[in-house]
Amino acid sequence: MTERRVAVIGLGSMGQRYVQHFQRDRQAQVFGCDVRPETFPDDVLCYDTLDDLLTQVAPTVAVIAVPAEHHLSSLYAVREAHPRCSVLLEKPVADRALDDQNVRRCMALGGVIAVGYCWRFHPFAQQVRSVRRSIRDLTLYVASDMRTWPGHHYADPLREFSHELDLVHFLTVAPRVTDVGRTPHGRYSISGEHRMGRWSVRIAPYHHPPGRWVRLRMRDGSTVTNHWARHPAMLNAMYEAQGAEVCDAQDASDLTCPLHEAITTTLLVDEIERRLSAQEDGVVM
């Protein structure tokens, strides 16, 4: 039996979730890393710096769950120290727009690097993906109050709620942005086109109660509305599927959300942010 050495980098709410997941894997030895000693699980060997972890442990799998501002620097450090290590990078890829240098560097990274857009693993998303060329119009809605979220140091709402924008990329072909808007209450309205029709995303990041739904209008005229199943068992199943996939993947082609696809989603978010900024500055794009 081959032992996996799993390094969970960042032991906030998401990191703790992955520690618990991999502790159930009899093949895995779990290590942790966080600057906050109070986050260290009692039964996990932890380090307070990433350099110490990467020097003293040769991980075969790394989960990067630090605040988004440290995602890319942590990814680069893991890859430089252990080029063959498989990586699961939590979303978003970065807390700000990617410059050309970082885009090129990310796209050049080889091996197994997945990004945590876990809603791709939802059974309904998988079902829709199989018929995506039959979708004419796609509408996605998400509401939650991020002020009540358990973690700290989140990125801006558009990036933290980028699952829906990633689903646009996952469920349509060649999407592009045509219109953006943001209300004084912080709600986002984003619209665009794809090869077969149109798409829109509505995000309410300071709203209660939470909700998530998708509406599809197919090329044959039929309409389907689905309220995503959000119960804890479903969410845990998606996270566990993503973690297992990273462990078993031989290369990027085995991943549901490899880094290069997450970069495409990130560039879509970057464009939306540029349009919003220009709109608020009175610039016509």
Describe the fold and architecture.
The chain is an alpha/beta fold and 285 residues long. It folds into 2 domains: 4-117 and 238-266, 3-Layer(aba) Sandwich (Rossmann fold); 119-229, 2-Layer Sandwich (Dihydrodipicolinate Reductase, domain 2), CATH 3.30.360. Helices cover 34% and strands 27% of the residues. It has 9 helices and 12 strands. Strands 3-2-1-4-5-6 form a 6-stranded parallel beta sheet, sandwiched between helices. The protein has a 6-stranded mixed beta sheet with strand order 8-9-10-7-11-12. Helix 2 (50-56) packs parallel to helix 3. The N and C termini lie far apart (57 Å). The relative contact order is 0.15. The mean pLDDT is 95.
